[in-house]
Amino acid sequence: MNKSKSRKVGKLNKRDRISRMPDSILCHILSFLPTEPAVQTSILSSRWKLVWTSLPNLVFDDKFCYRSGGTSVNNRLTRFENFVNRMLLSNSVNINKFSLHCRKLRYLSCLKFWVALAIMRNVREIEVYLPFGNPFEEGYKPAELPDCIYNSETLEILKLETDFLYKSPSSGICFPRVKKFHVEIHKPNMPDFSICPVLEDLSIVAYLLTNDWKANISISSQTIKRLNLLIERYMGFSNEHQVMIEAPKLEHLFIKDHTLVSYLVHEVHSLCDAHIEINYSGERDHPSQADRALQLLKKLSNLQSLYLCDGTIYALGEAYQYLYDARQYFLPTFSNLSFLEVRTREYGGWILPIIFSCSPNLETFVWMMATDDPEDDVEVEWIEPQFVPYCLQFNVKKIEILYHDDDPLEPVKYLLKNCGVLDRMIFRYVGESSNELCKELLMFPRGSKTCEVEFHGKYRD
C-alpha cells in the first residue's frame, strides 16, 4: 500500500472511530444527554439511525418545547406528549431511568400512563417533577400513580417532586425493592414507610401551607439508615405540627426546619451523625417553642458527630435561660461525641461551654463564629466558664475556627490556653486581615506543648 493511500485510510479510520463502536457503548454515551438531543443524533448517518431506540435512560424535559417559536403553547405541549409516547412505545428493551420534568402538563392521565409504561420496561429509577397548585383550593386534584408502581420488582429509586395521591396496596407491602425514596408532602397524604421492606435512604420535603392542616408526619421504618427532612415555613400560620421518628437502624439524620415543629423520637440507637438546622428567632417565636430543639437533642445522645446551626444554638440558649431551673440536667451526656461543628452569630456563643461539659470525649471542634455577610453587624457573645470542661483538658486535639472582623478573640485565647492535648488550631480569617492579628494570635499562651497554630487569611504590610 502506498503512502498516500495509507494516509487516506488512517484518516478514515480516525474519523469513523466513534461510529464503529458497539451499540452498547454508543447508548452509554447518549445516556448523558437529555432524550430529545439524543434522538436527534439519528440524522448523523444510517449507523446512528436506530441507536436511540436502545437508550437506557429516558430523560424528558418540556423546556425543549418552549425553545422553538412559531407555535402555540398547546401545540408545543401536544408535540412533547407525542414525543414521550413515541419514546416509551418504540421499544420493549429494559430502561434504567425514567425522568420527567414538566412545567405544565395538560392531562394528569398522561403521567399515569407513562409511569406504567416505564414499569412495564423494568425501570430501575423514576424521577418526576411537576409544578403544584394549592392543595386546599376547591377542585384541586393531586397526581396519581399507577397501581403497578406499588408492586414493581425492579424499581429501586423513586423521586417524586410534586403532590401525589398514595394508595396502600392490599398486599401490605409497598415499593418492595425501593431503597431510595424522595417524597414531597403538601397535605395529609403520605406513604406508609413502615411497609417499604428495603427502604434505606429517605428524603421528605414537607410544605406546611395552612393552619387548617395540623400535620403529624410519621416516619416509622425498621430499615432506613439515612433520613433527610426539610420542613418549609409559610407566613401567617402557627407551627403546631409534629414529626414522629421511629427508626432503630437510622445512622444519618439531616433536619432543616424553618418552623420548629415538635419532635417525638424513638429508638435511634444506631444514629452516628446528625445535622440540625432550626430557624428560630426570639422576635418571632416564644421561648416555650425553643424547648422543642432541646427535646430533640436529648433524644440524640448516642451521636458521634453533630452539627448545630446558629438558629439551633439560639433556641437552646433561650430554653436554658427561660425554661430550666435545674441547669445541671439541661443537656444529656454525649458520651460518644467526637466531632462537633457549630455556627453562632450575635447570640449563643456563651452556651458552648455547657455543650463541652456534656461531651467528655470530644476530639474535634469546628466553630463558625459569625456570618460572612459584611453588612451584618454581628458580635459573638462569649462567657468564660468557671470550670474547664473535661474534654478541653484531656481529649480535644483539633480546633478549626472561622473568624470575622470584630469577632472577639477571648474565646480563641481561652481554647488555646485550656486545651491540654491540642495538636492543631486552624484559624481561618474572613476580612481585611493584617500581620498584627496573626502575631497576636501566635502570642497567646498554649496549654498544649505540641499545639501548632495555622493562620489562613489575607495579609498586608
Characterization of this structure:
The chain is an alpha/beta fold and 461 residues long. It has a domain at 329-461. The protein contains eleven helices and 20 strands. The strands form three sheets. A 15-stranded parallel beta sheet has the order 1-2-3-5-7-8-10-12-14-15-16-17-18-19-20. Helix 4 runs parallel beside helix 5 (108-120) and helix 6 (287-298) packs across helix 7 (310-322). The radius of gyration is 28 Å and the shape is elongated. The protein starts with a helix and ends in a 5-residue tail after the last strand. Mean pLDDT is 81; it is low at 42-47 and 372-379.
Topology summary:
Layout: H1 3-15, H2 23-30, H3 35-40, E1 57-61, H4 73-89, E2 97-101, H5 108-120, E3 125-129, E4 143-144, E5 157-161, E6 164-165, E7 180-185, E8 201-207, E9 216-220, E10 226-232, E11 242-246, E12 252-257, E13 262-266, E14 273-278, H6 287-298, E15 305-308, H7 310-322, E16 339-343, H8 352-357, E17 364-368, H9 390-394, E18 398-404, H10 410-418, E19 424-430, H11 435-443, E20 452-456
Parallel strand pairs: 1-2, 2-3, 3-5, 4-6, 5-7, 7-8, 8-10, 9-11, 10-12, 11-13, 12-14, 14-15, 15-16, 16-17, 17-18, 18-19, 19-20
Low-confidence stretches: 42-47, 372-379
Report on the biggest sheet.
Answer: 15 strands, parallel
Rg result: 28 Å
Distance between the termini: 71 Å
User: What is the typical, i.e. mean, pLDDT?
Assistant: 81
Total number of beta strands: 20
General shape? elongated
How much strand?
Answer: 15-25%
Largest sheet, spatial ordering of strands:
1-2-3-5-7-8-10-12-14-15-16-17-18-19-20
Structural class: alpha/beta
> Helical content, roughly?
10-25%
Number of helices, where a helix is a run of at least 4 consecutive DSSP H or I residues: 11
